[in-house]
Amino acid sequence: MDTASGSVIDLARQLAQFDNNSPMSYIRPPVSELPDLAEIEKLIKLLREIVFPGYFDTTVPQDVELTGYLEHKIEEAHQTLEQQIQRGFCFFCFQHQTDCTQCRHSAQKLSRAFIFALPEIRDSLTKDAMAAYTGDPAARHISEAILCYPSLVALTHYRIANKLHLLGAELIPRMISELAHSKTGIDIHPGATIGSHFFIDHGTGVVIGETAIIGDRVRIYQGVTLGAKSFPLDENGNPVKGVPRHPIIGNDVTIYSNATILGRITIGNRATIGGNIWVSSDVAADTIVTQFKGRTGANL
């Protein structure tokens, strides 16, 4: 096929060339080394079936022996996880020209550590589900929260991605988080620290940044942003990575819809942030912040 300005092969040659400033000029791993998004989606499905057995696998007979069923699922998840973690390591290994034998060994060690952390992840998600049930008067049963709420979808992805992030996995945690982002509209960075009994009501448009710290029994509503106000730049004008730049939210805090909380500030225990508020300075414990002023010891 020819175009007005030349053949398709000429166009392909042009697109295959990269200047020195292009990220593609130095990150071009073989396709076989890329993590497989379809396999990661399969992994998340398996892990949901393990964490909440009987909820997401409709083919399970009622009289199935649960231990044997879970053993099979765990083995399958472990195999998939190890392969994808290795590919995540190899993606950057190719860039830095390191030894891929180390990638394989690291993936084996990390995937095993993650699999044996599943009871901890299940415990966290059960508490999140209970927070959704008790925090929403429209929920008639905890099963409704598990099956229907985007909060539980996003938090399942987050709890999995966060554990992998803490264990040192490359690339895979972010891919898992972005899967949840695309499904629910809830954007939680896997590096964020979130305590127990966390509930996101409705959820669409929620953003929780990488270095945010959230305490226990916190409830937030749709459109809430826990973001960065500013960040330092290096001598080349690029953002310095890993600097704490997102808010610290205390225990028992409620943040209503479309509130924007920016910077490394602290929202004290039991504080309430009203809707459509822009907060960029510390808020004391037991304070209620409205559009007009902050008050202590009153109802919103």
Number of structural domains: 2
Strand portion, in percent?
A: 5-15%
* SSE sequence, one letter per element: EEHHHHHHHHEEEEEEEEEEEEEEE
The CATH architecture of the largest domain can be named as: Orthogonal Bundle
Q: Report the average pLDDT across residues.
A: 89
Number of helices: 8
What report would you give on this structure?
It is a single chain. The chain is of the alpha/beta class and 300 residues long. The strands form 4 sheets. The protein has a 6-stranded mixed β-sheet. A 5-stranded parallel β-sheet has the order 3-6-9-12-15. The chain folds into 2 domains: 31-186, Orthogonal Bundle (serine acetyltransferase, domain 1), CATH 1.10.3130; 192-300, Hexapeptide repeat proteins (UDP N-Acetylglucosamine Acyltransferase, domain 1), CATH 2.160.10. Helix content is 42%, strand content 13%. The mean pLDDT is 89.
